[in-house]
Write a structure and sequence with these properties.
With 320 residues, this protein is α+β, with helices and mostly antiparallel strands. 11% of the residues lie in helices and 27% in strands. The chain has 5 helices and 18 strands. The protein has helices at residues 21-24, 117-126, 137-140, 230-235, 300-309; strands spanning 5-10, 13-18, 44-46, 52-56, 59-62, 166-169, 179-182, 187-191, 196-201, 204-205, 213-222, 244-246, 249-251, 263-269, 272-279, 290-292, 296-297, 315-318. It has a 9-stranded mixed beta sheet. A 5-stranded antiparallel beta sheet has the order 1-2-3-4-5, with no helix packed on it. Strand 4 (52-56) and strand 5 form a beta hairpin. The longest helix is centred in the middle third of the chain and has 10 residues, at 117-126. It starts with a strand and ends with a strand.
């Protein structure tokens, strides 16, 4: 018996819900089964590039099993004409700084059929398009009122010009779409087409917490929750007074007091989370300094701009 296919567009994903023989025998929805190597909800997810993912709690991990063979559905009566769906956005999925945190959704509970207002706002934020006009600092660092949460204007006049957004010429070895982080210069460069690049100031890890190497952007999230690792809390016990008990453990909800700021891009090496991120910050004047616990922080307006230009799968090179 051919498997029925249900397609959903949720936060940039095309969901292929594959019914199993257990479902055919009346044993309940496969969203609770987790069989055939699929994720916790028994479903397989596919992004706009054709790559498959499985869901583990609230994470979307690359699916390494055999891709499913999808057969054409039987001919059905013509459906009423509807407006075409918008093009799928680059894949993003929630990730946590603590990989041992329990899943946000209780095991066995059905996945939400709709989005809450805050989730819908985050999904809209992910679709935000970059400003391709000349860089005007008054505009680039002005207040952002049309995002999930309002972002205050940044007083760029008090920041060294070396750490403000710039368009520069580029003739280096890396291909367009690559992110290059130079911790010594406290600068991040996004290589673009036509021998051009876009450069931003960043804050990097202080001595003992710096990291270098090559990774990829595994996922992206607007206004993410932050779950500090247990090791971080152990190094700074006062952090315990700043976190709340969320569904996935002790953390800080996405919002105006979250250390990850307005955007976060999660860096992986192969199938392993490096636990390092490129993200916004609550302390924009720390840009140009080595103060963080290893992550790469940006002015929120710059994090929003970079986020809108970077795709999942982009290469990230952190220089030594």
């Amino acid at each position: 018996m051919s498997a029925p296919i249900r397609r959903l567009f949720l936060a940039g994903f095309t969901v292929l819900a594959l019914a199993s023989t257990a479902h055919a025998q009346g044993r309940g929805p496969v969203a609770e089964s987790g069989i055939d190597g699929f994720g916790d909800d028994g479903q397989l997810y596919q992004d706009q590039n054709g790559a498959f993912y499985v869901r583990r709690g609230d994470r979307y991990l690359p699916y390494t099993g055999r891709p499913p063979v999808v057969r054409a559905a039987p001919q059905a009566a013509p459906a009423p004409q509807v407006a075409p769906a918008p093009q799928a956005a680059p894949v993003y999925a929630p990730e946590y700084d603590d990989p041992t945190a329990p899943p946000r959704r209780a095991a066995g509970s059905p996945p939400a059929e709709g989005l809450s207002p805050i989730e819908a706002a985050k999904a809209k934020a992910v679709l935000r398009t970059p400003d391709e006009g000349p860089i005007d600092y008054a505009k680039a660092y002005g207040p952002v009122q049309d995002d999930v949460f309002p972002v205050q204007a940044f007083n760029y006049k008090k920041m060294s010009p070396a750490f403000l957004r710039q368009e520069i010429a580029y003739n280096g070895p890396y291909e367009p779409g690559t992110i290059i982080v130079d911790p010594r210069a406290h600068q991040l460069t996004l290589v673009e087409q036509g021998g051009r690049a876009r450069r931003y100031g960043v804050g990097v890890g202080k001595q003992g917490f710096s990291w270098s190497g090559t990774a990829t952007v595994n996922s992206k999230q607007a206004w993410p929750d932050w779950y500090p690792p247990k090791e971080m809390i152990a190094r700074s016990p006062k952090l315990a007074s700043e976190v709340d008990k969320l569904q996935s453990g002790l953390g800080v909800e996405g919002g105006l007091r979250n250390p990850l700021g307005a955007r976060a891009m999660y860096l992986w090496q192969g199938n392993k989370d490096t636990l390092f991120r490129i993200h916004g910050t609550l302390e924009p004047f720390s840009i140009g300094k080595s103060v963080s616990s290893g992550c790469i922080r940006m002015i929120n307006q710059d994090a929003i701009d970079l986020f809108s230009r970077v795709n999942v799968g982009s290469k990230v090179v952190v220089l030594n």
